[in-house]
Amino acid sequence: MQHTNMRLMVTLVGLFTVVLFSSPAVAQDEFFNPQRGIGLSISFPFAFLPAVPLTTSSTFFLNLVAQGQLNQQLVNQLELRFFFDSLGFQTALTSLRESMLVLFSSSPAVFYLGSGIGAFPIRVPAVPSDGLLLSFLLRAGFEVQVASFGLFLDVSYETMPQPFADIAGGTFSPATISALLLSFGVLIHF
After folding, report:
1. Is residue 5 part of a domain?
2. How many structural domains comprise the chain?
3. Is the pTM above the cut of 0.85?
């Protein structure tokens, strides 16, 4: 009987401890760890563009990122992308893209998948011509959060259904134009 009472006491103290320390932590995590934020990232495009005429995308994009939380699992992300190539910053090829991200885990390690729409800048030095193509994208990423800071790595695939001839000014009819982008950056959550 005394052995049973001792087990019951240990069980009750353990349960009380778990309830006492886990409930405020959950509430504190939701309050201090929102997914909305602003940040900066760098993207490196690996373009699968038509070979003729010679086309180029940027050497890298510098992105300003704004992120809003719609609910606990859904985030809206807007990126202002600045185009840099071997000639430097090209203001005419600044573009936007917007994504909806679904979060599959919570802080401190957040894994997400998403899709979106945007404009993809392309240069055609052979013509010469520059322009933006409508793009649809799929993306996957991983963010590590420490307090209000987050470091992330993101891979996205963009495909452009718009005719390439809109930029190149010719009668080119390549297969689907697409690009793979690797991005990394930092977000400040608030």
Report:
1. no
2. 1
3. no
Based on its alpha-carbon atoms, the radius of gyration of the chain, rounded to whole angstroms, reads 24
CA distance 140 to 181: 11
Arithmetic mean of pLDDT over the chain: 79
Instruction: Show the domain range for 98.
Output: 17-186
pLDDT at 25 > cutoff 90: no
Residue 37, C-beta contacts closer than 8 angstroms, at least 6 positions apart? 65, 66, 67, 148, 150, 187, 188, 189, 190
Contact call for residues 62 and 82 (beta carbons, < 8 A): yes
Place of tokens 């992105």: 63
Nearest to 39 by CA among 70, 11, 78: 78
Per the domain annotation, does 158 fall within a domain?
Answer: yes
Distance CA 120, CA 96 (A): 8
Q: Is residue 89 part of a domain?
A: yes
